[in-house]
Write a structure and sequence with these properties.
The structure is a homotrimer.
Chain A lengths: L2 H8 L16 E4 L2 E7 L2 E2 L2 E2 L10 H21 L6 E12 L7 H16 L6 E7 L8 E9 L2
Parallel strand pairs in A: 5-6
Antiparallel strand pairs in A: 1-2, 2-7, 3-4, 5-7
């Protein structure tokens, strides 16, 4: 089954691929790897903003991370690479966090679980997840990715 | 000499490989590279927590970073890859830091020096080291890695 | 035209390659990729320090990010790799930020725009840019890089 068909089966609709907010490109392919720029969480076209902790709850944070993951897939689709995904290799999760919020892994799972839902075993990836004080445009979460492609 | 033998010679005992604290896997191999997920610092089974600065001293931070490095090796061992390490390519060091703590490089050396101790010239790597406000489970340090493997 | 000639044409003079501030090396080549360690912003030999926001203005931050980019090129030059650059694949931008500063993309453009200025289309890269509370030596910006090389 193609990834596009699998997304349809899951009822997952990808967002429009967001334009970079600055001087870079969304995806670079080098050899059999695609490097995807850090993606921000848009839900229904609106950026999820704020810091995890008192300001933003865990459930909303998980949704935000999932939205970052969907945007990674949208960028791959826009680059004509979505059906060439062989393996999600690595996700880097940056979670805007108040100083006492330590549940970054649960937040980043929003993106990680999406990849396994869509790609099965090929969606299982290495990951780092860290807290940061603030992200571009006050986004709640940013996720970048390294993805292996079939030739 | 195998890496396993070299560790024995140095008297270094690896910790049990920690289970991921969320939905990802510890190591993904893609081509000749192993991507190791961000590892947290367990010493004698206990996570080293807190922020570098007034709360946590430099020596303890260095020990924590070394513990992250040992956990990277433990994950490689658990994946059957330890004796296939050809080069430590890149370490990413995230140091939980109070706002005026600027000695992240010295902390991250705990992991970097370990790699050179174990692998010699093949342990010399590229690195980034940055301060972060807070890490998963309130860990003091997190280190991820890209490692080249022999076929 | 060689990169060295292109830099001369642009009137860009590279800084002396800074020695690592700790136990790592500036560049590791693995296959056709060069991994460049996180570089700090030196302008006329002086490190640009402070946090973006009230303490440090946007224009100075952009200059700092450009200085990080120049140092990446200086490290490639010192390693004899500058004229083998095939593509700037990925930049990782870490911007020391006060909690309400959300313009990290504009800051990181200092490095990104430099790459496009020097390498043209081959300088267009994937990127992540995040805020951090503090960087080594109180640097304002740190940028690391993955770069594809010709054989």
């Amino acid at each position: 089954m193609t990834v596009t068909a699998r997304l349809a089966e899951l009822g997952i609709e990808l967002p429009p691929a967001a334009a970079p907010v600055a001087s870079y490109v969304p995806v670079v392919v080098q050899g059999d790897l695609a490097f995807v720029s850090g993606q921000l969480p848009f839900i229904d076209g609106t950026l999820v903003t704020g810091k995890l902790g008192n300001e933003l709850g865990v459930e909303r944070g998980i949704q935000a991370a999932r939205a970052c993951g969907l945007m990674i897939l949208a960028q791959l689709q826009a680059a004509g690479l979505l059906d060439r995904v062989a393996r999600i290799v690595k996700l880097g999760g940056f979670v805007a966090s108040e100083g006492d919020f330590t549940d970054q892994p649960r937040i980043a799972n929003g993106a990680s679980d999406l990849m396994v839902e869509v790609f099965g075993d090929a969606g299982k990836h290495a990951r780092s997840a860290v807290g940061v004080p603030v992200l571009p445009l006050n986004a709640a979460v940013e996720v970048d990715a390294i993805i292996a492609l079939t030739p």
